[in-house]
Amino acid sequence: MLDTDIRNTDAPADEMTLRQSRDSTDHRAIFLESPDESSDYTEFRTAEDIRSLAREMSRHSTFLPHEPASLFHPESGSDLDPNSPSFSPRKWVKTLLRVEDLDPNVGPRRKVGVAFKNLNVHGYAEGADYQKTVANVALSILQAGRRVLGQAGERVSILRDFEGVVEAGEMVVVLGPPGSGCTTLLKTIAGETEGITVDEQAKAMHHQYRGEAIYTAENDIHFPMLTVGETLSFAARARAPSKLPGGISSSVYTQNIRDATMAMYGILHTVNTRVGNDFIRGVSGGERKRVSIAEATLGRSPLQCWDNSTRGLDSANAIEFCKTLKQSTELAESTAMVAIYQAPQKAYDVRSLYHFSRGAKLTLIQLFDKVTVLYEGRQIYFGRVDEAKQYFQDLGFECPDRQTTPDFLTSMTSPAERIIRPGYENLAPRTADEFARRWKASQARMELLEDIENFNQRYPIGGEDSAKFSESFRAQQSRGQRSHSPYVLSYSQQVRLCLWRGYRRLLGDPSLSLTQLVSNISLALCLGSVFYNMKADTNSFYGRGGVIFFALLLNAFGSALEILTLYEQRPIVEKHARYAYYHPSAEAISSMLMDLPYKVVNSILFNLIIYFLPNLRREPGSFFFFLFVSFVSTLAMSSIFRLIASLSRTLPQAMVPTAVLIYGLVMYTGFSIPISYMRGWSRWINYVNPIAYSFEALMVNEFHGRNFSCAAFVPSGPGYSGLAPDQQVCSAIGSVPMSQTVNGDAYTVSSFQYQNGHKWRNVGIMFGFLVGLTILYLVAAELVSEKKGKGEVLLFLRSKVPTRSNGRDVEGAGAAEKPLPAAVRPSDASPSIEKHQDVFHWEDVCYNIKIKNEERRILDHVDGWVKPGTLTALMGASGAGKTTLLDVLATRVTMGVVTGDMLVNGQPRDASFQRKTGYVQQQDIHLASSTIREALEFSALLRQGEHVPHAEKLAYVDEVLKLLDMEEYADAIIGVPGEGLNIEQRKRLTIGIELAARPQLLLFLDEPTSGLDSQTSWAICDLMQKLTNNGQAILCTIHQPSAMLFQRFDRLLLLAKGGRTVYFGEVGKGASTLIEYLERNGASPCPPGENPAEWMLHVIGAAPGAHTTVDWPNVWRSSTEYLHVKQELQNLKDLAAVSIPTQVDDSQHSEYAVSFWAQYWQVQKRVAQQYWRSPVYIYSKLSLVVLSGLFVGFSFYMAENTIQGLQNQMYSVLMSMLLFIQLSEQIAPVFVMHRSIFESRERPSKMYGWKGKSHFDANELSF
Q1: Cβ contact 1176:652 at 8 Å
Q2: Do residue 1172 and residue 1134 come from a single domain?
Q3: Which of 221, 268, 668, 1197 gives the lowest tally of CB atoms within 10 Å of its CB?
Q4: Sorting pLDDT into bands at 50, 70 and 90, what band is 1187?
Q5: What b/e sequence results for 439-470 when a residue is b if at least 16 CB atoms lie within 10 Å of its CB, and e otherwise?
Q6: In terms of domains, do 843 and 758 share one?
Q7: Final residue of a domain: which of 1106, 1138, 1170?
Q8: What angle do CA 269, 271, 276 make, to 5 degrees?
């Protein structure tokens, strides 16, 4: 039992309780396995049907294999073999659970239920926020002072009076538009309450039961260079129980459960493919989403909260995800709460019955047991899924034909979508508060309260079930693990597992280590050549000290880049810590150990060169001591940099302390400023400087016990050549009269106050620094988390902050309740949108790439066209090549071989093709500091030709803003994902940037509705319809179209695996043309009311678990429709041959729309705006310059007119020059961000060329 009691601070009686359920829940879903499930649907109508089904289930259950060997070493091709086409996920799960139940060494299964009553969650807002700039950032200091004084700001209610109960084994779907509170509810249930206020006892969920209740966010965060198999193997091993059934090894268990999970989600074919991300090519977006789902599934948490996890999945895969979750809840009696913005009807259906015939097994599916509907932070329904629709109909609302039940329920939160039945105009609720009041007064709510009370009586807090739950978890923990720890593996096992992952990451991308190694070797050669082959005389004293000093610095500060790598992996580590996979400190230890081989190799190669080229002491003991101390210094400084990165919550916070630290360590090493010249106020810096102890040890290592011949005597020169030795004295420090040599020990004592007796003492001190700093780093890694975003709160320029409105976005504090989107207002017209007559067509397009010396065909002879005024859908299974086809057609692929004809009006594409087409990427990549209006204007000014007047370009931007319904927040700052614009607003902006360019040919859109709720998806489709009505040609990939959305497309290009065409042609009214073609060629009939898009993917075998005996690509190439397509393509080519050529300005065919100087000015202006709106970056530079100047000035204050004083003055100049290195390190992250945007979006769109990026240097110089 999860013994957690969460009470609101204002109402002591309010509570949310999570408990383990011992009893089986009332499952309303009955499943039987089918090796060949049919797509025919019927419905149970009599009790005899149920009894017959139960007997059939009993008959089949007697044949279930229960031996571990049959599960973990299945017969090839059997239904338990994940690599077999006949693999049965349900049978595999049932067998696994039965094997575990029958094994006495495996602990009892954990089951969790959740109940909450009068749950209230709130936060604090500062009012209308504004974008900080270099000029107004001082005002934020006053606001910080108010917070210190206890003025937390205005209290904002996020969730109000929530109630519900979820028994073990049940699934709840959470419906509501973005900003209604879905995310907050799921996070609260899972115990992730940072940034919001619930009750202090909620912390027990985060600490003691972390991993047992998990929250899965919609973002896909993974190590991009790991393969899918490696990513999921790690997750499977991290939560694998210590006692495995049948005594099998952990490696066999991990591989088998990983492969089975991948097969369940249809990604087994990607096992050796990189995961990738927005900038690194890997699996497709839909496949990456399924990797995220599989990773969380492998944790086997009894309580799972899924936040929009179907984002980026097609309807078939979304349904398969829900089915797989249902298998887990129904068989393992786990509990799942799922927020879905676009829920397919089949994922919600109460009863769907697959036909039973010839050994196929019958399946009665109710995927979700309960549903809750959220409206502006208020709960307006919680109950059975089969009662929800009728509840709202009784309130006076009407569900239109073909509208899915989830869409109908979600439409209750939108005045623009909900339809009031005749006669209820004055009775139906209209606001969130009215809906909530009607819910509280309903009979369904009374029954819910009774269920909550019964649940509380059955499973009281602190009762018997809590002890059994903890005992069950302890049975799965490794030996030596703390009883109250949320982790399954012991600490040493966690370190070993992270080490394995680190090794796989290194193999996947060794470029960084190799680059650093080559760079360091080059530096060693340069530095060694400067001090090449020094003689063993007093003239080499300064040179020997200099080469030791700089070699030590290069060894020590080579680890500074680890700050960047730590911040890159920090979100992934924190996600895994929330899943209770491993301690963050375990990953910290493994990363240090994983870096050791590189550090050893780098230290040996670097120090070999730097030691022997300058002719330092040629003795084995001295060399190995030099190597040893340099290596220990590298490790100690690495711990310092890692500590700074762990203590800082943002990257800019880490860069300034690092720069100042490097300054202090360099100057107070003892070489730039000898100890005797250090000021009293700064002497302590030398004591806490680990490099100072290394430098002293290396200096005495070089000079101890050696006598150097004197190279210069006093007096000397003309007239003094005949003097006897006793009449001259050596001019070097440490010399004695009447001696031709200088003792090295005397030199180090006189110059630096270094003694040989400190040599090994300093080594011990260095080890003390290393151990102490490492411990601090591990503690910081465990306790300090990354800075969390403020939420999707709109930020405006201070001069553009709107008056505070009654915010309806309870989670993001966004705009007020939206009226009917502009895109769907029938009265809106857009006469300024370009109308064109050009036709883009392609024939026999193939795309081949080489993977591991193997040629792989991604696209295989794809034909098609896009004509003005038509909306063409590009669909297919995930990984079928949809995005790749868009990239090929848009000339955006940078590798591989493309063949085939891609023509515009029968003519080859020219250099201007890329800027004349719009490409809306699936990833919303933007410059965070720009406003929406500025981003659109930037696109318009650079991509519309110079023949278009400047004022007309800006006026067109206003038209686009109006078209996209973005006028209300046109001056809002874009921000980063999770802070600034929300998902919907970002998607509109991405579309707007391409529209602002006035694409003359066509508009490519890659998943424009991904991650959006049904209302916004409908608005986006309305927008596309409006564009096509105005003559725009659109080719659009789409994953989750409802039946109503699918009917809005004119044509369909359907791809199968391998990029082969299944169909290209008209969709037809009600998809009749498509359905007729598929049924005519062997598909089972489409049931009445079925979504044609889902049915289509199922019959061609593109849906997970679906199989077909029809070779649809070959059927297509043999069809009359294919011949008609070929004939039309030939006609388009023939029209080009007879068309009359027109005189066109050469500038119309240029690669870029405007001149270099126009590009330079616009890019310069944008970067200057970004710098002005990045006060942290600018003031960190200013602080670095000022503090460094003061530090250097006071350290070398009033240098004396002596030889040492002169050296101090020179070193003060050198230290000032080193400042530019620190400034360059601050520039690097900003430059990388600009380059990423340029490479991923702006360069392929031909906004500006690489020469225009010289703006960066100019802005850096100005600031």
Answers
A1: yes
A2: no
A3: 1197
A4: confident
A5: beebebbeebeebbeebbeebebeeebbebbb
A6: no
A7: 1138
A8: 105
- Interatomic CA distance for residues 1235 and 1214, integer angstroms: 31
Where is 199: in which H helix or E strand?
A: none
Of 1091, 1170, 689, 730, the closest CA to residue 930 belongs to 1170
Query: Are 863 and 1126 in contact, with CB atoms under 8 Å apart?
Result: yes
**Bridge partners, 304 (sequence order):** 214, 336
Residue 906 lies in a domain: no
Residues 246, 182 share a domain = yes
Quick check: 976 and 955 in contact, CB under 8 A?
no
Q: Does residue 240 share a domain with residue 384?
A: yes
| DSSP state string for 71-127 | HHSPPTTSTT-TTSTT--HHHHHHHHHHHHHH-TTSPPPP--EEEEEEEEEEEEE-S
Strand order in the sheet with 1051-1056: 907-908, 897-904, 840-851, 854-866, 1060-1066, 1051-1056, 871-876, 1034-1037, 1003-1006, 918-920
DSSP per-residue letters across 1202-1260? SHHHHHHHHHHHHHHHHHHHHHHHHHHHHHHHHHHHIIIIITTTTSS-GGGGGHHHHHH
Task: Kindly state whether residues 1056 and 1161 are assigned to the same domain.
Answer: no
Q: Say what the pLDDT of residue 134 is.
A: 80
Inter-residue contact 1133 to 903 (CB < 8 Å): yes
The pLDDT tens digits of the residues spanning 201-244 come to: 444 454 556 778 889 887 888 999 999 999 999 999 998 888 88
Structural domain contains residue 673: yes
Q: Does 959 map to a domain?
A: no
What the block records as the tokens of 97 is: 């659970």
Percent of the chain scoring above 70 in pLDDT = 82
- CA dihedral angle for residue 296, residue 298, residue 303, residue 305, rounded to 10 degrees: 20
β-pairing verdict for 918-920 and 1003-1006: parallel
| Cis preceding-peptide flag for 831 (omega within 30 of 0) | no
With tokens 């954990």, the residue in question is 110
Range of the domain at 690: 491-506+515-783
How many alpha carbons lie under 13 Å from residue 171 in its C-beta half-sphere? 28
- Among 1240, 1243, 1241, 1242, CA closest to 281: 1240
Number of Cβ within a 10 Å radius of residue 216: 24
Q: Tens of pLDDT along 305-356?
A: 998 887 767 677 777 788 888 887 887 788 899 988 776 666 666 444 333 3
Residues in the chain: 1263
Phi, psi values for residue 87, rounded to 5°: -60, 135
* Pairwise CA distance, residues 794 & 816, whole Å: 12
